[in-house]
Design brief:
Chain lengths: ~170, ~130
C-alpha cells in the first residue's frame, strides 16, 4: 500500500516528492493506462512539450493539515486522460476538465493523509478548475510545497502540493 | 445472472469512469442507473430493482453516509449490497463504513479489483 510507504518515509522532504510522484504514476497507470517513460527514454523527454499551466485543476484540503494540490498537463495529455479514462474519442472541454479534476482528487486523496500525524482526519474538498488569475505560490505563501514533474508515455504533467509543514512532525 | 447497478456520485466523470470500469470487468450487467446525490439516489432506488449500489461519500444535498444510514434503516433495502468508492485511507472512517455492512473500493481501481469487490459483496464464490 502506498499509504504504508508514506507512513514509513514520513518526515523527509525528498521522500514526499518521491511519493507524490509514485502515487501519480500509479493513478495514471490504473485509471488512464499511461506509463512512465523508461530510463533509456528520459533523454528524449527534454524535447517533449511542457504544460503551460493554461488548464489547472486544484483540490483543497483541511483538517489535520491544510493546503492544496495543483495539477496541469499538456493539451495532448489532457485529451488522452479523458479519452482513456472514459473510453471516448474527442472529449469535450468540460469532460477534459472533469477528468483532470478526478485525477487530482485521487492523487490528493492518497497523498494528503500521509502529511497528517496520528491518523488524524483530513477533509478533501471537491476538485475544481483554477481561475487564470489564481497564483498558488502567493496564495499558499505560508505553506511548504513540493513540485514534481511526471513524465508519461503520453505527455508531461506538473504537480505541486502545498501543505502546512508542522502537520508532518 | 445479470446484475442491476446504481452509481451515486456527484461527479459525472467519476460516474462514467465507474461505469466504464464495470463494463471492462467482465461482470454480467443488466441495467446501470446513475444519480448525483443521496436524494436522487434514494429516488432511483425506490423506482428500480437493484442488486448493487456504488456510493460516493462526499456529495452535496445528501452525502453517502446519510444515504447509507437510510438504506440500512429501511426494511426493503436494509440488505442491499453497497460498495463505498473513495480515496479514504483513515482507519476510523473505514471502520465506520464496515460497521454499516458496506464494502470499500479504494481509488484508483482496476477492472480486476472492481470485479473482486463486486463478487465479494454479492457473496459470489470466485
Amino acid at each position: 500500500m502506498v499509504m504504508n510507504k508514506l507512513e514509513q518515509k514520513k518526515g523527509t522532504k525528498a521522500s514526499y516528492a518521491d511519493l507524490v510522484k509514485e502515487i501519480a504514476f500509479k493513478t495514471f497507470e490504473t485509471t488512464c493506462y499511461m506509463f512512465p517513460l523508461g530510463e533509456w527514454e528520459l533523454d528524449d523527454s527534454e524535447d517533449m512539450e511542457k504544460p503551460d499551466g493554461s488548464i489547472r485543476a486544484i483540490v483543497e484540503f483541511d483538517g489535520a493539515t491544510d493546503g492544496g494540490l495543483v495539477i496541469s498537463t499538456t493539451p495532448h495529455l489532457l485529451e488522452s486522460i479523458a479519452a482513456n479514462m472514459l473510453g471516448i474519442e474527442a472529449p469535450s472541454r468540460e469532460v477534459k476538465e472533469g477528468a483532470l479534476g478526478e485525477i487530482a482528487n485521487i492523487i490528493c486523496g492518497n497523498t494528503v493523509p500521509g502529511f497528517a500525524h496520528n491518523n488524524e482526519i483530513c477533509y478533501i474538498r471537491p476538485p475544481r478548475i483554477a481561475r487564470e488569475s489564481e497564483n498558488f505560490d502567493e496564495i499558499y505563501i505560508d505553506k511548504a510545497s513540493e513540485h514534481v514533474e511526471v513524465i508519461l508515455d503520453e505527455g508531461i504533467a506538473h504537480i505541486t502540493i502545498y501543505y502546512k509543514a508542522e502537520a508532518t512532525r | 445472472m445479470a446484475i442491476n447497478i446504481l452509481i451515486v456520485d456527484d461527479s459525472a466523470v467519476m460516474r462514467s469512469m465507474i461505469r466504464k470500469t464495470i463494463e471492462r470487468s467482465d461482470v454480467e450487467i443488466g441495467e446501470i442507473y446513475e444519480a448525483e446525490n443521496g436524494i436522487d439516489g434514494l429516488d432511483k432506488l425506490h423506482k428500480n430493482w437493484l442488486d448493487l449500489l456504488f456510493l460516493d461519500v462526499n456529495m452535496p444535498i445528501m452525502n453517502g453516509m446519510e444515504m447509507l444510514n437510510i438504506i440500512r434503516n429501511t426494511p426493503e433495502t436494509s440488505d442491499l449490497p453497497v460498495l463505498i468508492v473513495s480515496t479514504e485511507s483513515n482507519a476510523q472512517r473505514i471502520e465506520m463504513i464496515n460497521k454499516h455492512n458496506a464494502g470499500f473500493v479504494h481509488k484508483p481501481f482496476t477492472p480486476e479489483m472492481l470485479r473482486e469487490k463486486i463478487m465479494s459483496v454479492l457473496g459470489v464464490p470466485q
